[in-house]
Amino acid sequence: MSTPNRVYIARLAGVAVFDPNGDQVGRVRDAVARMRPNQRPPEVVGLVAEMPMRRRIFLSINRITSIDADAVVLGSGTLNLRRFEKRPNELLVLAELLDRRVQLESGQPGSVVDVAMECGRTGEWTLTRVAVREQTGRLARRGHLHQIEWDRVGGLGGVGDNRGTANLLAVLEDMRPADLANALQDLPDARRNEVAAALDDERLADVLSELPERDQVEILAALGRQRAADVLEEMDPDDAADLLNELPPPEQDVLLDLMEPDEANPVRQLLRYASGTAGSVMTSEPVIMPPDATVAEALARIREPQLSPAVAAQVFVARSPLTTPTGRYLGMVHFQRLLREPPADLLGGVVVNDIDPLRPTTPLPEITRRMATYDLVAMPVVDRNNRLVGAVTVDDVLDHSLPRDWRNRDALRTVPVTGEEPLDGSDD
């Protein structure tokens, strides 16, 4: 294997994995070590790589030809695409060791910030050294950093609950919300809830939207009601309504009462609509502007970074008031049309209104058919008085058209690749 003799595993997180032809097949998310008796350092048996569609698979250490901080390269062989499942005697190094509270030989407490694996003369990789930062009261993160042999660190033997979250969060911080949600699903429930609680409200709101309903509910319950209400305020109203729909009505009412009225009111409105209708899947906060706004003003509005691509793809034009339910709905303008018009032109002169808007009661199959027919990424939803009450976007349609458990990796259909011996060192 062409690789440094010692590799610090936290530095591998997110590194691209390439096949022998130079094609990227995924990214490293963790390392798997096998615990051994008599306090012998754990043996590293492979890496966990994240593939497209969020599937995590096992890469045997014996099939890896090169490891460094820029890339991991696989040798010849066929990937086994079965979802990785940790065995009872195995350890996920980053998920279970980072932030572990340990004890130095001097008796000084510390926390794990990284773990090194080394390749011996026989080609066996083991966890040999631990980077530990001294804890000195409130200045814990400023304590001295020590690199210590595995067997000289106290507190590494059991899984335990003596962990923080700072270093694991540092490894995860650059992940997209969907990828971070996927990483949380690999953690034990208690650890998952601990890491989720350490995220700031906005980041946690984005991650919750990408998790299966069961995980959403469990994390929300672990936060406590006031923190849960704060996170719900940061979620898009439609996502918050979907999550609250998983809770008993009394608990919904408690959390809605704890939210700020301006944030809770749109969610309450969405909760009134029947499941599987436009009202139940729409966002109540599309981009809405008056007809006397200019094209330049509209372009500036859709550049706002907090808007999702689907929401920013078009501007809905209505009479005031401009919060839903608005005044009379006039039509919409796609961003491509805005790019082609003079900046000083008024939206009222370029608005398109030749497609009938949806009603809150329009069923999901009809919404899907109409959006596909007209190649739209969003459609307006109006009430009986022709007031805009929201918009259904293509991501809303996809979320509610897929199977209910589509975010749960256990429900993913795996397709093993036949051929040579699979890249799964955990198979006997």
UniProtKB/TrEMBL annotation:
Matching PROSITE patterns: CBS
UniProt keyword Lipid metabolism, yes or no: no
Gene Ontology molecular function: magnesium ion transmembrane transporter activity
Keyword Aminoacyl-tRNA synthetase: no
InterPro entries hit by this protein: CBS_dom, CBS_dom_sf, Mg_transptr_MgtE_intracell_dom, MgtE_N_sf, MgtE_transporter, SH3_actinomycetes
Every CBS domain range: 351-411
Pfam assignment, any one: CBS
Assigned GO CC terms: membrane
Entry-linked CDD domains: CBS_pair_Mg_transporter (cd04606)
Domain of life assignment: Bacteria
Protein keywords: CBS domain
Name of the protein this chain belongs to: Mg/Co/Ni transporter MgtE (Contains CBS domain)
Organism: Micromonospora viridifaciens
